[in-house]
């Protein structure tokens, strides 16, 4: 992409309404625009990152054997009357009437709708296990929408639903989600710690939230420092192997890590004192096993191998896709701007032409741009006639992991400069070597 033809409305001034750094930087970097409280347009740069995050979510769900579909944002109230949640959900639910006076709602989550899909088409243990998920916009009329996309009213969420014939199989589905989520967050450059959580109004027996540590997080967290050092890394996981998946979950949930809702002072005090930490965290996902709560209420049953008809065992599993942009920036920025982890960066590299209009510099930038594209890397080429300082400031603000700086002085020596956004370190090398370094 050539910056002269892109739409990147960066702000020079700090927007007064932004209280936390990620919100400030997303506005300044021209990623989002608020349309009304808690509702945002996703401008091109923000949209690109949102799609990269969504893509990682899809890839890791697919790896675990889960199946994507798409349910609508608007739902009929009648489904929610069946589960009893239409009355219970309260003011967070946006209720709408259509022209015929029928009660509709903008979905805050999809347990009812997926249970309806299931009961319409599945009736035998032979079709299980089954995990269906989608990534779709949700609406919750939050009392206090704030911190930009972190607590929006309209937000983008991955929500997956598991259907199993018995509890053991449902817990395997739960564990599969935990492991898939661990890899999902790691690929985004995040340390997201599974913490035992309170099941709250959805109701359930087993639930963990995934928290990214950040001072601006809304949850108070208590944890053993050692838990932050665990990583899944490149391990190959056989998601069908119950014991293997369960062992990974044990590894990540044995050390103490809880939110204030489930915190237990006595257990926490058993953690060696030098490793005890109290901090704050951002909830970027949650997994739930809730058994037959919805299947019983809505008549979603399956025939077992011995011919009995039983309500199907269920769980639901969510990732805050749009909130993750905020969480990633909270975890990865400096005073100049965002520092995107490679896994989610909107462009792989920026090219800064120090002397736009200089035939040699222009030609070198063009050929670098093409070489990167040829290697499958998308670059943002700053081809505007701006001062070098302004170009650097924009690149630092939008946080691309690499910057290639091209100018007549370097080209006279046959070199360009490759700068890492994270370390700030610059190295001179030939344009070919710079491309090879990024591939
Ligand atoms: P919170 O405690 O922050 O209100 P929640 O527990 O109500 O979140 P869930 O029902 O668990 O949310 O939804 C799954 C995920 O969706 C959450 O872990 C979070 O990452 C994301 N999410 C929930 N509410 C919002 C929101 N208002 N704006 C952006 N993301 C949200
Ligand atoms: Mg909530
Ligand atoms: Mg919560
Ligand atoms: Mg939650």
From TrEMBL:
E.C. number(s) listed in UniProt: 6.1.1.15
GO MF annotations in UniProt: ATP binding; proline-tRNA ligase activity
Chemical reaction(s) catalysed: tRNA(Pro) + L-proline + ATP = L-prolyl-tRNA(Pro) + AMP + diphosphate
Compartments, record wording: Cytoplasm
A Pfam family matched in the record: HGTP_anticodon
InterPro entries: aa-tRNA-synt_IIb, aa-tRNA-synth_II, aa-tRNA-synth_II/BPL/LPL, Anticodon-bd, Anticodon-bd_dom_sf, Pro-tRNA-ligase_IIa, Pro-tRNA-synth_IIa_bac-type, Pro-tRNA_synthetase
Aminoacyl-transfer RNA synthetases class-II family profile domain sequence ranges: 38-341
Keyword vocabulary terms for this entry: Aminoacyl-tRNA synthetase, ATP-binding, Cytoplasm, Ligase, Nucleotide-binding, Protein biosynthesis
Keyword Membrane in record: no
Domain of life of the native organism: Bacteria
PANTHER family membership: MITOCHONDRIAL RIBOSOME PROTEIN L39/PROLYL-TRNA LIGASE FAMILY MEMBER, PROLINE--TRNA LIGASE
Subunit comment: Homodimer.
Entry function: Catalyzes the attachment of proline to tRNA(Pro) in a two-step reaction: proline is first activated by ATP to form Pro-AMP and then transferred to the acceptor end of tRNA(Pro).
Official protein name in the record: Proline--tRNA ligase
Organism of origin: Pararhodobacter oceanensis
The encoding gene: proS
């Amino acid at each position: 992409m050539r910056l002269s033809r892109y739409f990147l409305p960066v702000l020079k001034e700090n927007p007064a309404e932004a209280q936390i750094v990620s919100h400030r930087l997303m506005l300044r970097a021209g990623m989002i625009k608020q349309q009304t409280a808690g509702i945002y347009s996703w401008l091109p740069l923000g949209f690109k990152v949102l799609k990269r995050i969504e893509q990682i979510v899809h890839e890791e769900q697919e790896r675990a054997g889960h199946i994507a579909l798409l349910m609508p944002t608007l739902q009929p109230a009648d489904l929610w009357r069946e589960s009893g949640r239409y009355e219970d959900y309260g003011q967070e639910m946006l209720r709408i009437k259509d022209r015929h006076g029928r009660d509709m709602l903008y979905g805050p989550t999809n347990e009812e709708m997926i249970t309806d899909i299931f009961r319409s088409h599945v009736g035998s243990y032979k079709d299980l296990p089954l995990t269906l998920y989608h990534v779709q916009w949700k609406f919750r009329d939050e009392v206090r929408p704030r911190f930009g996309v972190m607590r929006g009213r309209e937000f983008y969420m991955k929500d997956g639903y598991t259907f199993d014939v018995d509890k053991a199989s449902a817990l395997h589905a739960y564990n599969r989600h935990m492991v898939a989520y661990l890899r999902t967050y790691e690929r985004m450059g995040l340390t997201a710690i599974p913490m035992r959580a309170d099941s709250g109004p959805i109701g359930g027996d087993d639930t963990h939230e995934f928290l990214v540590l950040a001072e601006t997080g809304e949850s108070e967290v208590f944890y053993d420092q050692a838990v932050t050092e665990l990583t899944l890394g490149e391990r190959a996981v056989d998601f069908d192997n119950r014991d293997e998946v369960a062992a990974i979950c044990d590894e990540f949930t044995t050390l103490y890590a809880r939110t204030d809702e489930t915190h237990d002072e006595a257990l926490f005090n058993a953690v060696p004192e030098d490793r005890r930490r109290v901090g704050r965290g951002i909830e970027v996902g949650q997994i739930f096993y809730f058994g037959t709560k919805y299947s019983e209420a809505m008549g979603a049953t399956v025939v077992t191998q011995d011919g009995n008809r039983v309500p199907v065992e269920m769980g639901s599993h969510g990732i805050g896709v749009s909130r993750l942009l905020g969480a990633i920036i909270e975890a990865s920025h400096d005073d100049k701007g965002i520092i995107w982890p490679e896994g989610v960066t909107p462009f792989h590299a920026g090219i800064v032409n120090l002397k736009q209009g200089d035939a040699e510099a222009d030609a070198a930038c063009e050929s670098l741009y093409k070489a990167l594209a040829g290697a499958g890397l998308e670059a943002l080429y700053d081809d505007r006639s701006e001062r070098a300082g302004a170009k650097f400031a924009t690149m630092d603000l939008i946080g691309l992991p690499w910057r290639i700086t091209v100018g007549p002085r370097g080209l006279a020596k046959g070199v360009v400069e490759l700068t890492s956004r994270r370390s700030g370190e610059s190295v001179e090398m030939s344009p070919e070597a710079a491309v090879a370094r990024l591939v």
